[in-house]
From TrEMBL:
The keyword Metal-binding does not apply. GO terms for biological process: polysaccharide biosynthetic process. The active site is at K167. It comes from the Bacteria. It comes from Wenjunlia tyrosinilytica. This is UDP-2-acetamido-2-deoxy-alpha-D-ribo-hexopyranos-3-ulose 3-aminotransferase.
Amino acid sequence: MPAIEALLSGGDYILGEAVSDFEAGLADYLGVEHCVGVNSGTDALILTLEALGVGPGYEVVTVVNSFHASALAIARVGAKPVFVDCRPEDFLMDLDQLEAAISARTRAVILVHLFGRAADVTRAARICAEAGIALVEDCAQAIGARWDGKRVGSVSAAGCWSFAPSKNLAAAGDAGAVSTSYREIAERLGLLRHFGQRVQNEHSVKGHNSRLDSIQALVLRHKLGRLEAWNERRVALAGEYQERLAGLPLGFQDPGGPGGHVYHLFQVRTESSEVRDALLSHLLGDGIDAVVRYPFPLHQQPALPHRPAVGAFPVAEALARETLALPIRPDLAPSELQYVCDSMATFFK
Ligand SMILES: Cc1ncc(COP(=O)(O)O)c(C=O)c1O
């Protein structure tokens, strides 16, 4: 890329024009006032919780069906992760259980738009507003998805983004960002990502070194303009899968309303853990890149404190045993998709 060559010879490596240009492009795409580029999606969550004043003595509620980082960030800032189960239809946080999980110590909720599917951010925001706590969105897997016509990451206190190489908008390495329309939150994040430094050698808060790398920002800016087309392709592929697999004993993640799913992953649910495990071996044996996301819900990860017992979240635990993800990427050829569907049909025959 000529822009990378120009950056390398120009030497504007840290928080220069490349980063602010991507931040402005992302803010425009999402329809928010500010985006702050950081080092990763995990740091986006950690810095956001810190910017919101979350720390020891507080609780943060999140959903037990997610990638580890959603809960790790809570534990990292010294707060207690409190979990709620997900729903069997859409695999997302069961908002009927959210209110009961909020206590006097709760400072925030992290809603996760898992596998590319937008969660009901409108209802979550209402519950949080009534409780007087902040809503944070973990948008790592769902760039471009919409709820009630609005992009995820645009209506809460903050949306946290990962651009790790597997994501729908992928950097060539680690990268992340936070989107917000609150100036104070954006300013605090700007300090936190850069050693807590407002001016050179004056460190007003205990910060991090977590800046979005300039080369990654150039890669992301370049790709941002293609994201809509890539997401449309993912949606079309998911439709093809659903059509061709319709006769098999499988369940699918509910796609939600218009624009509600951008299919970071295409999940299928089998009837039992035995079938899932056998199907996975069969697909892998046919050279198909099937994968289990995620084999353990968050409360079963030994790294986390305050873990509820196995059995506490029956829906997420069943999904962990019974689902697998089929290959989906914008450049998946029709013949590759057909090969996967044929292999599935052979398995169930
Ligand atoms: C739901 C979710 N949250 C957070 C993260 C963390 O992002 P990163 O890997 O950029 O730290 C990921 C990345 O896989 C994710 O899928």
